[in-house]
Inverse folding.
């Protein structure tokens, strides 16, 4: 039985910069942090790679978690994704007051595709973290019809 979404994993090339963005700018709370350097066979088994080395942090958002990863082995590939690409092209942060949140994040240097778009019962806009990972800001004004409007 699936009970819901627990977390979305985000791979970054600079762990400390990732923490500054997700913890300090977005306000997510670090609830777990760790690292290993090729000495974690259970992690290798779960991930499906051998001899891994990585840093990770589990960050609690208001209604889900974001798992931040920086692998040093194997060396990650740079696969910037567009919203239409296969894979995990973005995750959405549900917000209240999308215009104010857009202004706050823009002032802090987050790049967006443009200003928030009003769909009637919802508003949304795609932006990027410092590494090019796409994050949608999504505001629901009428929960009764919001999913039908998208």
């Amino acid at each position: 039985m699936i009970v819901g979404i627990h977390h979305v994993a985000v791979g970054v090339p600079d762990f400390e910069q990732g923490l500054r963005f997700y913890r300090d700018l977005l306000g997510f709370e670090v609830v777990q942090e760790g690292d290993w350097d090729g000495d974690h066979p259970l992690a290798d088994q779960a991930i499906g790679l051998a001899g891994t080395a990585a840093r990770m942090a589990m960050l609690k958002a208001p209604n889900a978690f974001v798992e931040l990863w920086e692998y040093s082995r194997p060396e990650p590939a740079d696969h910037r994704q567009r919203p239409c690409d296969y894979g995990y092209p973005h995750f959405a942060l549900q917000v209240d007051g999308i215009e104010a949140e857009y202004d706050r994040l823009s002032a802090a240097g987050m790049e967006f595709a443009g200003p928030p778009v009003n769909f009637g019962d919802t508003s949304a806009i795609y932006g990027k973290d410092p590494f090019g990972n796409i994050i949608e800001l999504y505001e629901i004004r009428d929960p009764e019809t919001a999913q039908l409007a998208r």
